[in-house]
Amino acid sequence: MASVGDSDEIAGRPAWPVTGVCFAVAAVAEAVLRTGGSGVILSLAIAVDVCATLPLAAVREWGTTAAVTITIATAAACVLHEGFAVTGLAAFATVWVVLVRRRILRRRAERAALVASRRQFETTLLEHTARGERARIARELHDVVAHHISMISVQAETARLAVPGMPDEGAERLLAIGDTARTALTEMRRLLGVLREDAGPEPDRRPQPGLRQLLDLIDETRETGATGVRLIVRGDVAALDPGLELAAYRIVQEALTNARRHAPGAAVDVEIDYTPDALRISVRDNGPGPRAASAGAGGGSAGHGLLGMRERAAAAGGDLRAGPGPLSGFLVEAVFPLEEEP
After folding, report:
1. For a surface tag, which of 76, 210, 232, 330 has the fewest beta carbons within 10 Å of its beta carbon?
2. Which domain of life is it from (predicted)?
3. d(Cα 12, Cα 321) in Å, to the nearest integer?
4. Statement: the pTM of the whole predicted model exceeds 0.85
5. Could you tell me the pLDDT band of residue 37, with boundaries at 50, 70 and 90?
6. Are 202 and 192 in contact (CB under 8 A)?
7. What pLDDT shows up at residue 307?
């Protein structure tokens, strides 16, 4: 009865008024049969039975009031009839089934809306985080690229002025190279100005760090209380592309920060492996692992840190993997392919 009434209600037909009247008619018939059809008891029984059934007609607008009225009147009808009031009990069951069903559907709708809103918020937050991280990476790489372009401009100008007997065409070419380099620097400064406005405060003017500054980073980490941090270097140490070294340094820095936040007191090994074809970096701790870390931090900050590391690795042409360690703890691995020198 409840499901039929709800479907009719959705379709726009006046199902509940008709249902209430039908129940009331059945209740009157039951009262006549059970009281013998005469006397004061009949009038009282009809009144009570009608009160126990007719409020179903208003269940759409006044669900709680109708349920309370039917409940009280049904109890009175059972006392009056000295037994079960069949029609009243049917109305009682119907009205409460309808109310419970409505409550369940309302809660499901609210839960679905909450989940959708949360997913949209998380998606928007991740998008903004990725944009901000890319802007910070671009600001840091600006100094590296600007240095190379400045060297191009200076060397072109020096060659034009220092080489005696240079043909006019060669001097014009070198002059054009210098002008192009200076124009590129100007455009990069404009881009950097946009990134500063879009991504936050003025960046640090110190030289960008590289792999040679990892010892200082390890020492700073130890000074914060993480005494179990080790730096392990394998292979032939060589100077690499400044942008690649910057990305590797920032990945190690973020991985150490995550280890200190999610596995305080755990031992951490930072491994740098120089191979002929790639630079391999791994940061591994012996803490509780990703499950405990995500439970303790809610998964938000750790997820944003990993997103930033992946963005940095991709910007330098590398690949990054993060997850549980072989035995325990958390492992961050990054691989940066190295271009072969001609």
Report:
1. 232
2. Bacteria
3. 56
4. no
5. low
6. no
7. 78
